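Translate structure to sequence.
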């Protein structure tokens, strides 16, 4: 883009034009001064190139402002405006402030257009205090002034200020335009304020903007961010003209709610409608696939992105990496990481999280140390990933070293870091040290801290400390069923079944409900879900027969049912039978019946896998000669040839 500025306008006569050359010699060599002046301003009519608007002299000043100050160029409101626009485009806050200061000394300082550009420049440079100051000092404001400041607040985490300013604008009698509505709807969505959003929707209707595609898309996105997907769909369906933004808002809303199947269906409809998915579309669909662990649909979407020719930029690459990791394919996740055009701190954190979730402690440590060596500076999330991996892999010394290393990077540990250290110490069997660590924490222990200690007590069968930790949890979070179940397990393992029954009774009386366990497996793009003792599946007979055959085979090579994981049945045989039809076992049997021989089996479970199922899957992976990948709420378990990637340290 070129901004033509005629010298007749800025240079009063040829003698002044000639006088620029001596000034230019101060900044350029004598031999090229004339050439540079003619190149910068042109020969006959004179043209200032767009790229030269912020050109600096050797003394660091902006050349155009220097020429104005020396009388070699007449100032003009449009010139200030163009310079400020260039500062906005290039995010040059420092230069923008210099132009602003010069503009305030000019006779144009009360002009609305440059002042509006100033508001926008400061907002885009994330300097909202300066933007507000310009707005407040304007003698006259127009619709653009109000919209620029509202938009600035909306885009810079100032949602409440944006909404307050919108109300103030209406009181002054200004009628909002489509851009104003777009910004205040974004603000309402970021606050997840459905009530405010509905009021704004009514205002859009009164002003005749309901069917405007720009405002309609903003309404869809607002309702989706508030979790009101029915309202979002109603607005979407009423739009006579849709665009990529409206589709993206609806798809992203379902992805955020974990409704992966709906998001994938909408993506297909979008493609059939002739709309081209954007980076934001693909990012949302990858997140949707990750939420349900849908590997094959995720691969299909990835193929579409490759065919579209979109570059694998950081933010979409990060969600693609996360999708592969959460769908159980850590190798594909690493391939995406290696192919990223530019790796930011989120990219590294995503890879670290993936390794940690898959129980690959050594790989996490290597990746973390590589990041410290060649990547961006680690943040609090980076350290949390590294500490989690050390906890899952039993790397006690390394984990404690990383916790101390946070001080070097001036990162203050938050409660999540402390919980992970408790987990690390507890898993390592150092329960006394974990309790001492809790007592010496500089912040008040939360329920999560005591839950971590309780889980460690369950693992190491420490009844006394486990009861103490459970009591602390019940005080802080009485309605979470998990700690109750853990305590009941501790009692049952210690042979105190009456105490276990008492905990169960306490749950019933308090209205605490245990989340029903379920597992699901994806076969040929269809998801099949199972619950314990499931008898509703069309293949129920074949599934049970298959698991009984596997059970017989794994018993032959050493599997012995651990009935301590069944709490409420006193008869040994009945407890063994209850174990055999846990949801993940039925899912495994179904997958073996309906997938190609030798292919990996990927199973997801909504709660932590029980110890006996973990043991059974190790033996099963050997007798069926398959890799079994099980994702529960804590991590991934990769079962191969009779062993698990967690090394039984989970």
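Result:
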């Amino acid at each position: 883009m070129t901004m033509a500025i005629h010298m007749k306008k800025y240079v009063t006569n040829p003698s002044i034009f000639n006088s620029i050359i001596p000034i230019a010699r101060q900044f350029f060599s004598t031999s090229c001064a004339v050439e540079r002046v003619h190149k910068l301003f042109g020969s006959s009519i004179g043209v200032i190139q767009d790229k030269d608007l912020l050109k600096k002299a050797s003394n660091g000043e902006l050349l155009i402002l220097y020429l104005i100050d020396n009388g070699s160029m007449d100032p003009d409101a449009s010139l200030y405006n163009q310079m400020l626009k260039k500062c906005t485009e290039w995010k040059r806050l420092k230069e923008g402030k210099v132009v602003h200061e010069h503009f305030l000394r000019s006779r144009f300082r009360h002009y609305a257009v440059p002042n509006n550009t100033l508001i926008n420049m400061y907002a885009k440079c994330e300097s909202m205090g300066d933007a507000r100051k310009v707005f407040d000092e304007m003698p006259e404001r127009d619709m653009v002034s109000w919209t620029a400041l509202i938009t600035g607040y909306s885009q810079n985490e100032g949602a409440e200020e944006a909404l307050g300013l919108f109300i103030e604008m209406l009181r002054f009698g200004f009628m909002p335009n489509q851009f104003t509505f777009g910004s205040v709807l974004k603000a309402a969505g970021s606050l997840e304020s459905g009530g405010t959003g509905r009021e704004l929707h009514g205002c859009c209707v009164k002003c005749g903007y309901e069917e405007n595609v720009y405002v309609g898309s903003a309404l869809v996105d607002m309702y989706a961010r508030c979790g009101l997907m029915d309202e979002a769909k109603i607005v979407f369906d009423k739009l006579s003209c849709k665009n990529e933004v409206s589709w993206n808002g609806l798809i992203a809303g379902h992805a955020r709610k974990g409704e992966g199947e709906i998001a994938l269906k909408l993506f297909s409809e979008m493609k059939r409608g002739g709309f081209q998915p954007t980076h934001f579309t693909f990012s949302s669909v990858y997140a949707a696939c990750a939420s349900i662990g849908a590997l094959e649909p995720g691969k299909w979407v990835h193929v579409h992105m490759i065919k579209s020719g979109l570059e694998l930029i950081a933010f979409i690459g990060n969600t693609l990496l996360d999708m592969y990791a959460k769908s159980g394919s850590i190798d594909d996740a690493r391939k995406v990481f290696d192919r990223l055009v530019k790796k930011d701190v989120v990219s590294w954190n995503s890879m670290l999280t993936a390794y940690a979730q898959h129980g690959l402690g050594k790989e996490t440590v290597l990746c973390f140390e590589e990041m410290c060596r060649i990547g961006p500076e680690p943040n609090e999330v980076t350290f949390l990933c590294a500490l989690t991996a050390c906890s899952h892999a039993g790397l006690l010394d390394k984990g404690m070293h990383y916790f101390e290393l946070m001080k070097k990077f001036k990162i203050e540990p938050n409660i999540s870091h402390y919980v992970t250290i408790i987990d690390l110490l507890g898993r390592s069997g150092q329960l006394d040290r974990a309790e001492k660590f809790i007592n010496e924490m500089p912040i008040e222990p939360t329920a999560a801290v005591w839950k971590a200690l309780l889980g460690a007590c369950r693992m190491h069968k420490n009844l006394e400390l486990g009861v103490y930790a459970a009591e602390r949890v019940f005080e802080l979070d009485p309605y979470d069923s998990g700690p109750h179940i853990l305590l009941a397990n501790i009692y049952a393992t210690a042979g105190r079944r009456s105490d276990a029954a008492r905990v169960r009774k306490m749950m019933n009386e308090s209205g605490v409900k245990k989340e029903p366990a379920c597992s699901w497996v994806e076969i040929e793009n269809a998801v099949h879900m199972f619950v314990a003792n499931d008898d509703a599946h069309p293949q129920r007979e074949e599934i049970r027969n298959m698991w009984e055959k596997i059970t017989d085979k794994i018993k032959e090579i050493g599997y012995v049912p651990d009935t301590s994981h069944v709490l409420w049945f006193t008869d040994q045989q009945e407890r063994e039978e209850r174990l055999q039809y846990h949801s993940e076992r039925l899912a495994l049997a179904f997958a073996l019946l309906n997938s190609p021989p030798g292919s990996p089996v990927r199973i997801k479970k909504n709660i932590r896998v029980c110890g006996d199922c973990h043991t059974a899957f190790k033996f099963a992976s050997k007798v069926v000669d398959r890799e079994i990948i099980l994702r529960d709420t804590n991590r991934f378990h990769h079962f191969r040839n009779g062993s698990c990637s967690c090394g039984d340290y989970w």
